[in-house]
Structure formats: C-alpha cells, structure tokens
User: Which sequence fits this backbone?
C-alpha cells in the first residue's frame, strides 16, 4: 500500500497548479468572461458546454453533468489513481514528494516501466549518435541533406540511423547491461532459431537495419517507440515498433510533443501522413504539424487533436490512396466535432515534395485557399460519379447527406444546401427534401440519459439520485420537491462560501435533514474538515459527489444578501419538515380510527390543534 500523502503536500500542489494550463493540454479552451469554455472530453458534443472556473479551481460540464477539480479531471481523463495524479503534478510543478511504499505488484510494474524508458532512451541516443558522428551513419546523413533536413531538426526530433548490420543495437546496449531478451520484449529485437542440430537455442537480431530512425516521443519528449524508413525500394518501406502495454500507435500522433504549443498559437492543426512531412513543415515555419503513426487516423487521435483546437487542415498525399484516406480522416475528424479544411497541393504527391518544388509562399497560399471537407468530398464525388441524370444527382446527395446533417449551425447547413442547389441545378427545396429523406434511412444518434440535463419540474432527484417518472412501470421512489432542492442547493453553496454559516445551519436544522444524498456527504465532510481543504480531499468522494460539488461552485448565483438568503432557505426546509410532521400525525390518527381507538385519535387531534395555535404546523 502507498503511504498516505501528507495533506500539506497536497495543498501545496493544489495551490501551485494551474487548472486552466493543465486542462488546456487536453481541451481547447476559450475565455468567456471569468470562465473558460471548450468541448467536453468525456462525451461527444458539438457545442462547448465544458466550463473551467479558475477562481474556484473547478471544472464542470453542463452537457454530461461531470465535474470536479484538477485532480479528479486527470484521474478521469488518464485513468490514474490519486497518488499517480499527485506524482504527475508534483513533477510538473517541481514539488518534492515524500518517499512512498508500494506493493510488490506496483513496485514490479513501476520498475519495468522505468527500465523500458531507460532502454528507449539509450536506443534513441545510440541511433542519433550513429547518424551524427559514426561512419556507419553516412547513408543517413546524405539522405537527410538531400531532403533538406537541418542538423537542428535532427537533434530536436532525435532522428537516427540503424546500421546495415544484424546486431548493432544488440551489442551497443549489451554494454549498458541490457539483455537480448529485454530488447526483444521492448520490441527492438526479434527472436530467431539457431540452426544447430538438436540445440534448441534461440538467437536474436535487430528489428531495425539500414533504416532512417524516427523516435516517437511523448509530451514529455521521452521516446516510447520507433519508426524506420528504408533508403531504397525494398519492402516494407516503413517499419514501426510493435504495440505494447506502454505504447498504442492509435493513441499517439507523431510530432505532438513539439506541435501542441504551435497548434494553440496558430489556431489550427496541420495533419499529414508521413514523418518527413512533419519534419519539413515544422522546419519551414509550421510548428502545428503532426502525423498519424503508420495507420489510418483513429477516433482516439481525433480526440487528441480536439484537446488543442477545433480546426484541422488535412494535408494528405494527392494520389488515389491519399484521397481515400483524406475522406475517411475528414469524416472521423468531423464526427469528433472538428472543423476540417483541405488544401489543393497541385504538382506534388505530398506536402514535403510541394514545399521543395513550389516553396513556402505557395504552400501558404494553398492553405489560405483550402476548401471545406464537404466541398472537397463533393468535388471528389463528381469525379467518381457521372452526374448526368436526376437519379445520379440524388445518389450524390444521399452520399453527402450524413456530412450535411452533422453540421450544428443552421446557417452553415443552409449554406451548403444552397451550394448543392446551384451546383446540381436543383431547387433549394428539392435538395433539402432529398437530404432529409436520406437522413431518415440512417440511425440517428440518441444521447444517453446520463447526458440529459436535469429538468426543472415540480420534483427532482431523490436520495438515490433517481428521477420520479410517473410514466415508468417500475416502483415509484420518493421525489424531492423543487423548493427543497433549491433551498438545499443554495444553503450548501452559502456554507461553501462562508464556513461560519455551518454552525448556524446545524443549530437550526441539525445535521441529517438533507434530502439530496450528495449534499449530505459534502456537509458531513465540511463538519470534519476546514474550508482550505475543499477542492482537495473531496477526491475521496465518489464521482457523483465530485460533480455535485463542482456544479455548486461553478454556478453563478446572486449571493449579495447571504444572511437573508440563509434565513429564507432555513424557513423553507423547516416548513417542509413541519408539513411532514402533520402528515405523519394525520396518518397515525387515521390508523387509530380504523382500529377503533377513538380516544387515541382524539388525543392526536387535540395535539394537532395545539401545534396550529402555536404556529408550529
């Protein structure tokens, strides 16, 4: 088990951490008054509802009702434990942590990860040294000179060269104490059976030989995998590290470690296909360039881009395969809520070649003249389909319909409908009807119930966070009247803003009056702790409690007269309690009457009358 992290250390980390800075590494945030808004990373949405409030160091999504502080955000986003989150933030902000005791399993896992990181570091350094300094790296140096890649770029991206030998890396890392089996487990070496009769021996050889080496770096600039490219026409042209417990190529983008500041600065990401495209474009003044890793673009990679921007410019190869990949990537990016644009790079197969042939100014003009994804798809379909008859026009509309209906803005959607109307020579009404008809044949996305906002009806969530639904066949559950819900909500917010109110509330109402279960938990925590720790220790709460707390703190409320509001809330809750008492007495009196105990019923009736006179009921 981990030792308990001292509360003072947690408070120091919370104080020094910048929630906007950290969350901005995952979500593209825009300032709106005192808050920041962006697309929620925890559910699919087109319109930003994810809110970060720096003054309270909290986040909350009004779309899926998930909220919390910086710790809970990282725990949910990265699937980290609380100690892992603390360790990350401590490292980021230069805060020293006390030594921790780990279980045997945790120790072994941590030791394995650190060992692999060390092996990858040695490997990247070795391949880079071969390229920069050793005679065996001459073919690689000539190649990069020919491609116009500078020495600074080589160092910055930790590029390398694997010699044309079977055991160069094996022998180099053996000097560092790395075993052959370790290199094989790390994906840097391959096994082979030694051809010796009856020996049963296994030998090893380097995975990468006679190839340019591209180090795949994470956001900490640490190598996590490698890619290799041949210098001739041999196959495979590209060879990549295998997937492992520490690396999944579908979750990373080449160059993102250097690109994410540039993406924020430029306001968009340049997405290309190849390693060399990234090198050439970043070197030419486009620090916002990234590439997928030897595979088709994935949904996870699109979400990774969405952390930093809402606009992506696709610069894939211009051949048939590149066009097909562009259409698929554009669809994935659009589904992730990103705006997609595609430039025309005529006279070249890829961005790297276009830059070398036409120059940086022509590339800049091509970016400025980029068309939207829908326009690009339309032009591509025109080449594929012979649009001569009305049925052929209807087929084109059917194929482009999902892209039109994905657009949230009514004005933008109508703009595309008018564009198609003019291009196809059809009336706007006909185009709209055809698109609508095509959409009916598709299964529409229905948001999950958990993403639906809470309806402000006469009754709201009960103690078990369920909704009282008269139309549901299941057994009815007690509901919380809207007035009580609002009173409890305002009351808890007042206490969070001024802890002195806690004693007043407890004196007037006690400590167990809360009908919203999560509010009860927060109130109990406040009694046992102090206000300075709010936003920190609540990480021990479950997710519902964290979200309730974040929602309370993020919401803008008029608290200009806190004492009067406090009195009003207490009066509403007391009134509700008294009404419940009257109902209980009435129920008991009815029961006594049915049982024949008329004396008992009369006694209860007199008690109710006395209470009414005193104004207690």
Assistant:
């Amino acid at each position: 088990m981990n030792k308990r992290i001292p509360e003072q250390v947690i408070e120091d980390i919370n104080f020094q951490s910048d929630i906007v800075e950290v969350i901005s590494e995952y979500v593209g945030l825009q300032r709106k008054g005192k808050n920041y808004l962006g697309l929620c990373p925890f559910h699919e949405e087109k319109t930003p509802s994810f809110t970060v409030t720096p003054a309270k160091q909290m986040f909350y999504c009004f779309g899926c009702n998930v909220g919390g502080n910086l710790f809970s955000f990282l725990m949910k986003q990265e699937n980290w434990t609380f100690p892992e989150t603390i360790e990350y933030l401590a490292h980021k902000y230069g805060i020293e942590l006390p030594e921790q005791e780990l279980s045997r399993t945790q120790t072994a896992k941590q030791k394995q990860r650190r060992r692999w990181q060390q092996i990858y570091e040695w490997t990247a350094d070795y391949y880079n040294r071969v390229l920069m300094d050793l005679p065996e790296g001459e073919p690689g140096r000539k190649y990069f000179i020919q491609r116009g890649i500078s020495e600074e770029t080589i160092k910055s991206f930790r590029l390398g060269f694997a010699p044309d030998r079977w055991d160069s890396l094996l022998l180099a890392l053996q000097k560092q104490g790395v075993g052959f089996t370790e290199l094989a487990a790390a994906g840097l070496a391959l096994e082979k059976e030694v051809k010796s009769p009856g020996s049963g021996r296994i030998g090893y050889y380097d995975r990468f030989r006679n190839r340019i080496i591209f180090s795949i770096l994470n956001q900490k600039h640490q190598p996590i995998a490698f890619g290799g490219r041949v210098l001739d026409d041999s196959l495979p042209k590209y060879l990549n590290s295998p997937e492992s417990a520490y690396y999944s190529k579908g979750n990373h983008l080449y160059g993102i470690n250097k690109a994410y500041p540039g993406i924020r600065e430029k306001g968009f990401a340049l997405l290309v296909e190849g390693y060399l495209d990234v090198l050439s474009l970043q070197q030419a003044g486009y620090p916002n360039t990234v590439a997928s890793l030897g595979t088709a673009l994935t949904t996870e990679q699109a979400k990774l881009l969405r952390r930093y921007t809402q606009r992506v410019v696709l610069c894939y190869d211009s051949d048939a395969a590149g066009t097909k990949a562009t259409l698929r990537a554009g669809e994935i990016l659009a589904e992730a809520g990103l705006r997609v644009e595609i430039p025309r790079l005529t006279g070249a197969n890829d961005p790297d070649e276009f830059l070398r042939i036409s120059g940086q100014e022509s590339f800049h003009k091509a970016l400025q003249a980029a068309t939207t994804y829908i326009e690009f798809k339309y032009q591509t379909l025109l080449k594929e389909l012979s649009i001569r008859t009305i049925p052929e026009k209807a087929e084109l509309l059917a194929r482009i319909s999902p892209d039109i209906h994905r657009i949230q803005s009514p004005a933008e959607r109508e703009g595309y409908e008018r564009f198609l109307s003019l291009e196809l020579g059809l009336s706007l009404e006909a185009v709209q009807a055809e698109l609508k008809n095509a959409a009916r044949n598709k299964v529409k996305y229905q948001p999950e119930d958990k993403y639906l906002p809470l309806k402000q009806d006469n009754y709201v969530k009960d103690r078990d966070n369920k909704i009282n639904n008269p139309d549901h066949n299941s057994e009815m559950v007690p509901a919380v009247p809207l007035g009580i819900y609002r009173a409890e909500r305002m009351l808890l917010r007042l206490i969070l803003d001024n802890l002195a109110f806690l004693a007043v509330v407890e004196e007037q109402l006690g400590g167990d009056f809360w009908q919203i279960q999560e509010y009860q938990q927060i109130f109990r925590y406040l009694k046992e702790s102090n206000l300075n720790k709010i936003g920190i220790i609540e990480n021990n709460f479950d997710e519902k409690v964290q979200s309730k707390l974040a929602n309370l703190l993020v919401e803008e409320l008029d608290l200009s007269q806190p004492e009067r509001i406090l009195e009003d809330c207490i009066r509403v809750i007391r009134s509700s309690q008294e009404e419940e008492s009257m109902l209980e007495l009435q129920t008991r009196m009815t029961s006594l009457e049915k049982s024949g105990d008329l004396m008992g019923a009369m006694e209860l009736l007199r008690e109710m009358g006395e209470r009414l006179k005193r104004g207690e009921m």
Notes: The chain is about 50% helix and 10% strand.
